[in-house]
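Quick log. Single chain, no ligands specified.
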Amino acid sequence: MPATKAQPKEMLPLVDKPTIQYGVEEAIASGIEQVIMVTGGGKRAIVDHFDRSLELEHYLEERGKSDLLHILSEVDELSNQLDITYIQQKEPLGLGHAVWTARRLVENEACAVLLADDVILCEGRPALKQLIDAHRSTGATVLAVRRVPKSEVSRYGIIATGGSRGGIHEIVDIVEKPPAGDAPSDLAALGRYVLLPAVFGELDRGEPGAGNEIQLVDAIKRTIGHQPVVGVEFEGDYYDTGTVPGYLRANLMLAMKRNGLREELAPLLRELLETSPESV
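-> predicted structure:
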């Protein structure tokens, strides 16, 4: 807020692409062919972004804007590589409730969940593919986890681990936003999951948790001991665009990785670093 008062936060741009497009690209690169987008009210912009705009294409073609037409064609190609279904969460009752609204479309199968404001970029296997591979090898519900500084554990759901093998950890408990002194580990659950159908069974109970919302982590936690649950320390660059500092960091880091932008930004950054805080 206030940037998201009239537009979905998933449509805020990271350099020149809306945040949600990075998630769709990750899903495609992970082998996903069917995507269910759970949206709230007033999020028509998401639908429009992934829909083809013949009027805009005609306008650009008439004016010889071939470079912009090429960009549009790239977005259209994303839509052609998968089937997108949109479903509305009629009330903002929490992440768990948002996932639960897709239950009939999931049809009692394992499914992946990707939170669009958690952007993870990888040189090799996408983060979601790393979780899918772990699910296939373990048959478990899988959470993406990453080690965080002790001073930050109170911002996340922190997992307690049993045995560990490589970067895969058996999860025996999840503690939501614990004080630093009470955290069972420094492994935080972030915005990628592969869920077994049992999780939907727990979401069916509709039990509110923190913030009086239906929490996905609570439902996963209740399956521990009945179904296997593991955490995967994923490889890749993680950006939390749900906060102002995280959003600015993501834009800066992505811009500096791009040829053309890096050369323009580097002198500006050096100038800013040389400027005293008082004069800024």
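Residues 239 and 245 are 10 Å apart (CA to CA).
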